[in-house]
Amino acid sequence: MQNYPHFAFQPRRRRRQRGMALAAGMLVMLGLLSLILLGVLAGAHGGSGLLNMTQNGDQSANQQGQSTAAQNAADSGVEYTLQWLHNQPGPPDLARAFALPTWNGNPGDPAVIYTLPPTSATFTAWVFPDAANGQQTVKKYLIQSTGLSGGAAVTVQAYVSLTSFGKYAVFIDRTLPGAYWASGSNVFDGPVHSNNSNGELNNVIWSDGTAGSPVAPIFTYAGSDAFTVSGPSINWYRNSSGNPSAPRNDAEWRMIATGGSGSIQTGVPMIPLPATGTLKQQYAVMGQTPPNNDTDTTPPTGIPAGTDPVGVLVPNSGGSATGGLYIHGPVQQMNLSVDPNNSTTQIIQIQQTDANSNPYTTTITLNASTKPPTTQVHVAYMKNQSGNFSAATTDNTYTGVTNGVVYCDSNIGKTDPPHSPSSDLTARPLTNPGSGGVTGVVADGASLTLATDSGHNVNINGSIMYHTPRQKDGSGNPLPESDPSNLAFRTSAGTFGIVSNNVQVVDNDASGNAIKNLEVDAAVMAFGTYNAADSGSRAVGSMINMGTYIVGIRGVFATVNGLTVTHGIPCSRFYDNRLADHPPPFFPTTSSQYQVLSWQRVFPPL
Q1: What digits encode the pLDDT tens for the residues 59-71?
Q2: What is the DSSP letter of 161?
Q3: Are 138 and 449 in contact (CB under 8 A)?
Q4: 467 contacts 494 by C-beta, under 8 angstroms
Q5: Residues paired with residue 281 on neighbouring β-strands, in sequence order
Q6: Number of other CB atoms surrounding residue 529 within 10 Å
Q7: What DSSP state is assigned to residue 423?
Q8: I need a surface site. Which of 22, 37, 287, 354 has the fewest CB within 10 A?
Q9: Mean pLDDT across the stretch 422-451?
C-alpha cells in the first residue's frame, strides 16, 4: 500500500447547496425539541431513550463521516490519475483497461492501493480507453476510482479527453516584442494562452473610461482560463502604452475581463506546440497509426518519392478509402466548393503543374450522403498550352469517403521570396507577398484538415466559409453560438482546419483582384506565424477569423497610428466553441493536457 503523494490540488468535494437558511434553522430546532421530548417520555417510563438515541446518533454520524471520507478518497483518485496522465510522454495507447500503477509506473503494472494521509481512507483506480482511440487523435478515457473508509465504499467515474488545440481561441508560443492587446482593438470570446517561451511578457492596454475611450473588456469569455500566461507577470498599461498601471480592485479587473481577476492566470505551465510538426497528419493521410511519442520521426510507408509526378494519392485497400488525400508537389490554387444539389457533398479542386509546366488539375468529390459513400477523383491534364484539357483515361471511384485529412508535401500557393523556416522567426513576422492559395466553401457536415509538410506554407487568397454560416449582428460580427438564429450553424455546419509552417493572407485573389474584406472560418495552427502580407502598405480593409488562432509568434495584419488603422486588414477574432470538443479531423492535440467531460458517482462500478 502506498501513500498518496502531495500535489497542489485538494481532494475534490461535492458542492453544497445554498439558500433556505431560515427554514433549515427551524428544522434543526424542531429536531432538538423532538429529541428532548422523546428523552423525557422514555425517562418517565424508567427507560433510557435519550441515551439510546444519542448512541444511535453517534453511530449515524460516524457512518456519515466514513462515507464522506470514502467520497473524498474516490475523488482524489480521479485527480491523482489525471496528474499521472499529465506526466506521461503521450496518451497511453493500450486498447484494454489497466489499473493505475505506481507514480513512476507504466500501464499494465500491478494495481496499487493508495492511502490518503492523514486519514486511513484508501483508493484504487482503473483507466478504460475509449474504443475509438485507435481512429482519433483526441484520445478519451474513462477513469474509475473507488474510495474505501471503514465500511464505506464510494465509486466515481470521470470521462476525460486529451485537450485539442481547438480549445483555444488564441494560442501564442513566442510573444512579439512591442506588441499589445488593447481595449477597443482586441476582443476574445474564448480561452487565450501565451507560453512566453522567448522570455517576452505580454503587454495589455486597458481602458478605465477616463481618457475619452469607453470601457471595453478584452476578454469576454468568463471562464477561469480566459487569459493564461506562462510568464511570471503581465505588463499592464492604463489607457495608453505610456502609463504603466495594473488594476487595483475587482471593478477595474472587470474592465479588462468579464470574469474578473479570477479568469486571468500567470505562471501556468507551458504547453508546447507539437514537436514533430505535422508528422501525425502525414500518418493519418496514409491511414496508418503514428508513433505514440514526440521523439520518433519515422515517416509512414507508401508516401510518394520526390521524383514522382505531381498529383493526388488516395490510400485505399481493395478500392475502399483507408486514409485521406495526399497531394504530391506544389499547389498553385485550391478551390473548395459544394455541390449545388447536395449541401453535404464537398468538392475540392487542386491546380498544379507538371515538370514541364503543363497544368494538371485534380477534382475530388466527397459524396458523404450516397449509399455507400464514395470518393471520386477526376483528373484533367493539359498536355500543351493550347487551352484544351485532356481528361484522364479513367476516373477513379473509391468506396467510402476519406478521413478528412488533405495533406500536401509542398506549398499551397506561391510565396516570392519564399518564407523563412519558422525557427528563423526571432522578431517581426514575415510580410512576403505571394499568390495563389486556398479559398472556398466547406460543405455541411464536412470536416477537413488541410496540412502541409512542416517546412512548407499555406496561402489564403479569399474567404473560407461554412456553407451554413454563423449568423451576424447589424455590425457584421458573428452572433453568439447560443443565439436561436444559430441553431442551423450548431447542428449542420462543417469544420475546417489548417496546419502548416506559416499561413498568410496574400494581396490578391485568384482573379488578380485586391483582397480587402474576407472571412476565414477555420481552426488555424501555424508553427511560424499567421499574418497578412504587406500589412504596412496594402489598402485598409477588414477580416474576420472565426475559429482559432494558434501560432508560434503573433502575426501582423494591419498598421495603426494611435487608434487609427492606416494600412492592412485588421483581424477580428471570434471563437468557434464547437472546436473544443469537435475539432477538425486529426487536428493537433496537446501532449498531456486533459479536460474532464463528466464526473459522477456510480452504482455499481464497472
Answers
A1: 666 778 889 999 9
A2: E
A3: no
A4: yes
A5: none
A6: 25
A7: G
A8: 22
A9: 74
| CB-CB contact of 427 with 403 (8 Å) | no
Amino acid 368: pLDDT:
92
CA 435 to chain centre: 30
209 dihedral zone (left: phi>0; alpha: psi -120 to 50; beta): left
Which residue bears the cell 447542428?
A: 491
Q: Which distant-in-sequence residues (6+ apart) come within 8 Å of 166 by Cβ?
A: 497, 523, 548, 579, 580, 583, 584, 587
320-346 pLDDT, tens per residue? Answer: 999 999 999 999 999 999 999 999 999
* Residue 485 CB contacts under 8 Å (≥ 6 apart), including other chains: 471, 479
C-alpha 21/C-alpha 114 separation (Å) is: 38
C-alpha cell at 333: 490554387
Cβ–Cβ contacts within 10 Å for residue 224, how many?
11
| pLDDT one-digit tens code per residue, 67-101 | 999 999 999 999 989 988 887 777 887 888 988 87
**CA-to-CA distance for 524 and 446, rounded, in angstroms?**
17
Q: Among residues 351, 340, 404, which one has the least CA distance to residue 373?
A: 404
Nearest to 458 by CA among 475, 482, 438: 438
Q: Tell me the H-state helices in 127-256.
A: 250-253
Using pLDDT thresholds of 50, 70 and 90, give the confidence band for residue 300.
very high
427 vs 27: CA distance, rounded Å: 68
The answer to whether the beta carbons of residues 407 and 285 sit under 8 Å apart is: yes
Give the model's pLDDT for residue 399: 95
DSSP state at residue 416:
S
- For 430, the grid coordinates are 514575415
CA-based radius of gyration for the chain = 29
Q: Is the per-residue pLDDT at 6 higher than 80?
A: no
State the CB neighbour count (10 A cutoff) for residue 268. Answer: 14
In angstroms, the CA 282 to CA 505 distance is 24
pLDDT in tens, 522-576: 999 999 999 999 988 999 999 999 999 999 998 889 887 755 788 999 888 899 9
Lowest mean pLDDT among 112-116, 138-142, 410-414: 112-116
Taking Cα atoms as reference points, which of 309, 325, 335 lies closest to residue 376?
325
Residue 251 three-state SS: helix
Q: In which element (H, E) is residue 545 found?
A: strand 542-553
The full 3-state SS of 92-160, as one line of letters, equals CCCCCCEECCCCCCCCCCCCCCEECCCCCCEEEEEEEECCCHHHCCCCEEEEEEEEEECCEEEEEEEEE
Q: What is the largest CA-CA distance in the chain?
A: 117
Looking up cell 481493395, which residue turns up?
Answer: 318
Task: For residues 22 and 261, give the distance between their C-alpha atoms in angstroms, rounded to a whole number.
Answer: 33
* Cα–Cα distance for residue pair 441/345, rounded to 1 Å: 11
The single residue listed with the C-alpha cell 447536395 is 342
Distance CA(297)–CA(255), nearest Å, equals 46
Cβ neighbours of 471 (radius 10 Å): 16
Tell me the backbone φ, ψ of residue 39, rounded to 5 degrees. -65, -40
Q: Cα–Cα distance between 493 and 486 in angstroms, integer?
A: 10
CA–CA separation, 129 and 160 (whole Å): 10
Give rounded-to-5 percent helix, strand, coil for the chain: 15, 35, 50
**Integer Cα distance of 163 and 580 in angstroms:** 8
